[in-house]
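Structure first, sequence second, as always.
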């Protein structure tokens, strides 16, 4: 017997989102107990989070419960999209090609570069004076 839900983890920078996805008559996304539109204040962030569902054109509707921690809201939205994409591929393997082409299955490797000694930031040097 298959489990009643599918789990997946998405990451971006220092944000980590773990989700539980199950088939439901009406789709809904809850992030840390709040609706996705309420958790991500702007429509842009909420749309990024839901983008995987619209791109996959899933015939089935899914209820998604997400736990997000770390990072900022932008990174959490991207991490949620990553997690949802991974879960959809587990549920419907034929959507992999579409999601892979949209680069939703690839973890974005960009992260903040560390500060180096003798510099003010990662690459910014103190002002140079000839005399």
């Amino acid at each position: 017997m298959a489990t009643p839900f599918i789990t997946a983890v998405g990451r971006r920078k220092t944000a980590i989102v773990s989700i539980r996805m199950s088939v439901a008559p009406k789709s809904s996304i809850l992030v840390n107990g709040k609706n996705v539109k309420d958790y991500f204040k702007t429509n842009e962030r909420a749309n990024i989070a839901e983008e995987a569902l619209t791109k996959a054109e899933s015939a089935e509707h899914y209820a998604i419960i997400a736990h997000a921690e770390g990072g900022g809201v932008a990174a959490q939205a991207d991490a949620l999209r990553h997690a949802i994409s991974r879960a959809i591929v587990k549920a419907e393997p034929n959507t992999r090609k579409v999601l892979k082409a949209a680069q939703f299955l690839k973890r974005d490797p960009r992260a903040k570069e560390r500060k180096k000694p003798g510099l003010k930031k990662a690459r910014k040097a103190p002002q140079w004076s000839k005399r």
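Margin note: The first strand starts at residue 6 and ends at 12.
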